[in-house]
C-alpha cells in the first residue's frame, strides 16, 4: 500500500481524497518509480478542483510531473536505482500521475534526472520550468539575440514566468516582466528582470498594430495579452505562446505577422519529443541558478496539495509549489 491523491467520479459528481492505494491498482507500464517529489501546475489545479474536464479517465491520480527513483523496470533504457524525471505525456489526465508515492509508467516518457539537480529541485522546476526552457530554446533557435531589444515575459510571477525570467537573464537578455502583483517587484528583479510593467497594460482589447518594443515574448497568458504582445513585437520578432491563464481565445489580427514578419510559435510541453525535452533540461541544468529555486519554490506535503490546488487557480500562489509525497 502507498499514499496518494485519488480523484473519483460518479453520478453525484467528482470527489478527491488522500487515501491508501494498493500497488496492484497501478496502471500498466514497463517502469515502476518510487516517487520522491511532485508539484502542482495549473492543469493539476484544474484536475483536483474539477474546474475543467482535464481528467479523462477515473479513478485518477493527478500530477503531471514527478521525480524519483526506478524500483523495477523491463524497459531497455532504465534499471532499478536510476533517478528519473517525467513531465506531461497525459500523465495525471489519462494515466495515473505523480501525486502519490508510487507510479507505473511507460519508460519512453522518462528522462534522466540531470546531475545538477536533486529530485526536489527538479520539481521546483517541473513542467512550468521545463516549458519556460522550451520557450527560451525556441526564441534562440529562431534567431532572437540580446542585442535586438527587450524580451517581454507575461504572467511573470507564475511558474513559467519565473523560470523564463531567470533563464533569459542568464542568456544575456534585458527582461521586462508583466505582472498584476506590484508587491512582487523585488522578487522579479531578484530573478533578473530589468523592468516591471502592470499586466493591465496588456489585458484589454488593443489596436492591431502598436508601437514596436519587444524583440521576443514568452507568453503564458493568452487572450488579449497575447494579442497585444504580438501587436507590440518588433520587426521579425518572435513570440512563444505556451499558456492560457487569461483565456484560450486570440482576439488579434494578422497585421503583425504580415506587416512586421512577426513569428508566433506554439510551445507544447505535453507531447514534445525526446530531443527537445533533453535540450530544455540541459539548458536548465547549465543556466538556472539552483539558489533561485529556493526563492521560486514552496514545499508542501501530499495532504496540502488539495487545498493548494484551489489557491493556485485563484492566483494566490507565487512561483512553484513542490509536493513532498513522503512528507
Please describe what this structure looks like.
By secondary structure, the protein is an alpha/beta fold. The protein folds into 2 domains: 146 residues, Medium-chain alcohol dehydrogenases, catalytic domain (Quinone Oxidoreductase, Chain A, domain 1); 140 residues, 3-Layer(aba) Sandwich (Rossmann fold), CATH 3.40.50.720. Helices cover 31% and strands 28% of the residues. It is built from 10 helices and 15 strands. The strands form 3 sheets. Strands 3, 4, 5, 6, 7, 14 and 15 form a 7-stranded mixed sheet that branches. Helix 7 links the parallel strand 12 and strand 13. Helix 1 packs across helix 10 and helix 2 crosses helix 3. The longest helix has 23 residues. It starts with a strand and ends with a strand. 49% of the residues are buried.
Considering the chains and any ligands shown, give keywords for the structure.
327 residues; globular; 15 strands; 2 domains; single chain; Quinone Oxidoreductase, Chain A, domain 1; alpha/beta; Rossmann fold; seven-stranded mixed sheet; six-stranded parallel sheet
CATH class of the largest domain: Alpha Beta
Radius of gyration over alpha carbons? 20 Å
What's the architecture of the largest domain in CATH terms? Alpha-Beta Complex
The rough form would be described as globular
Average predicted confidence as pLDDT: 95
Count of alpha and pi helical runs: 10
CATH domain topology of the largest domain: Quinone Oxidoreductase, Chain A, domain 1
CATH superfamily of the largest domain: Medium-chain alcohol dehydrogenases, catalytic domain
Q: How much strand content do the residues show?
A: 25-35%
Give me the secondary-structure category: alpha/beta
Order of helices and strands: EEEHEEEEHEHEHEHEHEHEHHEHE
Amino acid at each position: 500500500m502507498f499514499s496518494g491523491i485519488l480523484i473519483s467520479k460518479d453520478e453525484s459528481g467528482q470527489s478527491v481524497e488522500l487515501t491508501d492505494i494498493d500497488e496492484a491498482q497501478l496502471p500498466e507500464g514497463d517502469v515502476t518509480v518510487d516517487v520522491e517529489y511532485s508539484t502542482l501546475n495549473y492543469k493539476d489545479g484544474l484536475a483536483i478542483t474539477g474546474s475543467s474536464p482535464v481528467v479523462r479517465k477515473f479513478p485518477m491520480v493527478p500530477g503531471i510531473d514527478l521525480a524519483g527513483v526506478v524500483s523495477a523496470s523491463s524497459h531497455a533504457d532504465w534499471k532499478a536505482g536510476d533517478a528519473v524525471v517525467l513531465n506531461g505525456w497525459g500523465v495525471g489526465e489519462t494515466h495515473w500521475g505523480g501525486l502519490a508515492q508510487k507510479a507505473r509508467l511507460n519508460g519512453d516518457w522518462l528522462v534522466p534526472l540531470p546531475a545538477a539537480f536533486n529530485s526536489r529541485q527538479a520539481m521546483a522546476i517541473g513542467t512550468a520550468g521545463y516549458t519556460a526552457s522550451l520557450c527560451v530554446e525556441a526564441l534562440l533557435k529562431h534567431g532572437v539575440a540580446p542585442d535586438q531589444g527587450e524580451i517581454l515575459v507575461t504572467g511573470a510571477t507564475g511558474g513559467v514566468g519565473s523560470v523564463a525570467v531567470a533563464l533569459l537573464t542568464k542568456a544575456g537578455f534585458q527582461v521586462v516582466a508583466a505582472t498584476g502583483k506590484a508587491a512582487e517587484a523585488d522578487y522579479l528583479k531578484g530573478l533578473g528582470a530589468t523592468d516591471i510593467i502592470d499586466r493591465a497594460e496588456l489585458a484589454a482589447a488593443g489596436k492591431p498594430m502598436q508601437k514596436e518594443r519587444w524583440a521576443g515574448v514568452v507568453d503564458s497568458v493568452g487572450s488579449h495579452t497575447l494579442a497585444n504582445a504580438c501587436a507590440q513585437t518588433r520587426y521579425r520578432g518572435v513570440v512563444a505562446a505556451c499558456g492560457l491563464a487569461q483565456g484560450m481565445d486570440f482576439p488579434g489580427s494578422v497585421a503583425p505577422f504580415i506587416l512586421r514578419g512577426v513569428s508566433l510559435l506554439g510551445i507544447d510541453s505535453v507531447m514534445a519529443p525526446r530531443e527537445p525535452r533533453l535540450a530544455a533540461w540541459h539548458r536548465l541544468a547549465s543556466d538556472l541558478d539552483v539558489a533561485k529555486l529556493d526563492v521560486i519554490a514552496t514545499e508542501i506535503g501530499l495532504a496540502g496539495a488539495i487545498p493548494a490546488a484551489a489557491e493556485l487557480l485563484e492566483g494566490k500562489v507565487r512561483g512553484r509549489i513542490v509536493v513532498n509525497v513522503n512528507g
